Amino acid sequence: MDQASTGASRPRTWIVIIGIIIILIFLYFYQPFENYLIDGIKNIHAYNIIFWFTSLVGIVGYAVAHWQSFRQYVFRQVNELEVEALVFDSLQIALLVAVIFCAGGTLQAVVVLSGHLLDQGAIMEATFGRTLLSVVLLVILAIAFYLLHRVVRAFRVGWRPKRPPGRSAP
Question: Strand, coil or helix: what is 110?
Answer without folding.
Answer: helix
